[in-house]
Amino acid sequence: MAQHLQREIGKLKKDLLTMGAVVEDMVYLATKSVVQRDTRMAQEIIARDLEVDEMEVSIEEECLKILALHQPVAIDLRFIIAVLKINSDLERVGDLAVNIAERSLFLSGQEDIGLAFNITAMAEKVEKMLTRSIDSLVNLDVPMAYQVRTEDDEVDALNREMYEKVKEVLGSHPESANCLLHLLSVGRHLERVADHATNIAEDVIYLVDAEIVRHTPEDFIEKP
User: The pTM is what?
Assistant: First the structure.
């Protein structure tokens, strides 16, 4: 019985990592489509939304089946709970990648006004956060999870800087308001991806240490 449970948990972990790889790729390509004004790439990202939704449902059903059949306890129970939450976060990241791709489709049909801020740098930081959060799950790496949590503050700072730069450009180019607002949405969606990466990292901390750090300021947590 215990071996059967561990096999199912192993499969669950593999399925979650596959989903993580898919949404990582979606975020990268969606942002790339904005920078390169690539409508084909944007449309491909939008078309993959159903694939991620199906993965989410499949993983949730597998979690519920394990809970019903095996009634896991301790670390196994925490793992199932963490997977359920991370599964939801990854699905939302997929949705945000689709939102970015939709903004890309609009922007590609407008006059190129240039990017009001360094969206590539922001995207790279967010993508690294997402990768590290998933790596922290694979390796049960609590220090890496705490690192992701710290990096969220950096993305928040970039988000505030983005708003200021867009406001500045908007003052001198009011005719570009619609494009600037869509660019602002891209930045906001990236910031939300960073939030979900942080959620995943916090779930890894819960999984390994049985400690809930959500809503707890970084300064008040004793790091490993």
Answer: 0.89
Residue 110 DSSP code: S
Residues 6+ apart with CB under 8 A from 183: 34, 103, 107, 115, 116, 117, 119, 166
Quick: pLDDT tens for 77-133.
999 999 999 999 999 999 999 999 999 999 888 877 666 577 888 899 999 999 999
Domains and CATH numbers, the chain: 2-220 (1.20.58.220)
One-letter identity of residue 99: N
Inter-residue long-range contacts of 72-80, CB under 8 Å, 24+ positions, other chains counted = 72/5, 75/207, 76/5, 76/9, 78/206, 78/207, 78/210, 79/9, 79/207, 80/9, 80/12
Q: What is the pLDDT of residues 58-82, one digit of tens each?
A: 999 999 999 999 988 888 999 999 9
- Is the distance from CB of 95 to CB of 48 less than 8 angstroms? no
